[in-house]
Amino acid sequence: MKAIALAFLALLGQLSTSAVAQNLITNGSFESPVVSPTGYTEFPVGDSALSGWTVFGPSGMNVAIVGGSFASSGVTFPAQDGVQWLDLSGTNSSNTEGVQQSVTTIAGRQYQLSFYIGNTTGGGVFGSTSTVEVLVDGAVAFTDTNSAINATSLTWQQYNHTFVATGSTTTIGFRNADPANDDNNSLDNVVLTEVAPTATATTLSPAPNPATVNQSVVATVTVSAGARPEASGGLAQAAAAAAAIGGTASVSGGGASCVASLSNGVGSCTLVFATPGTYTLTAVYAGDAQNAPSSGTASLVVNDVQVASAAVAAPTVSNAMLALLGALLVIAGWRGVRRNR
What we know:
5-stranded antiparallel sheet, 6-stranded antiparallel sheet
């Protein structure tokens, strides 16, 4: 029993590990290279000695990895994660310097970026706020400011953003946006993960069904979405996801095909079938950055056109003819009476 329990726990641990999204950032907590716990090490622009990162900015500027036990002007500077963090303002720098790294991505996929900015209001040289510009492929995508008031220590705040990758490689950068007289802009615990697409379900409804050859058949496609795996929004989350579904869905089968434009997850298009038969129609939604692809099928019966038999019209008799026939019948009857006498 003990062996079984241990095996079960090991399996559970493997499943839990696989469920955690992989961080695409290397050295996101700036634990390498190791610096003095009570000091810091500068890395000038162009330096690649900061593991995983490249320092960019004006020539002569720098950033610095700071030990979590560093203190100055009565202020302590603990790390948010691990024992080290990065000062984007560097030492005697405080310009538009920063760090960046390129990661492997999939074009069209959505990614979530998370990081912490630290701020202190203690000691005039450290300023009153900390502002970081986030660059995606060299362009400023987000700007975040930590305005927390703490005169004796760093206060860390988390920031989260999502973006859609446009290529197989994406460059993520963090740039100092504090004024020149601010000597602290703290960055730590950078995490970049791929956002799992929302699962979808596609249903198809053709009408009329059955139909006849050469008759227009309207194929209605409905694409519904559930809550994201990492989110907890229940029905509200699912409804919001469904409302956001657009794009197109292709419908094909029986030698016919059409494309339905989706609005709020619903769309339709028209099919025409030249020959009778029972066909399996398939609707395919290709998905997008937020929604996973899905497909659905439906059966359609197409009958041949039935030609109605032509009714034989009864001959028409004029009033004059009817009168003549009546007279002849009277004469015939009168002669029969005389003969009997």
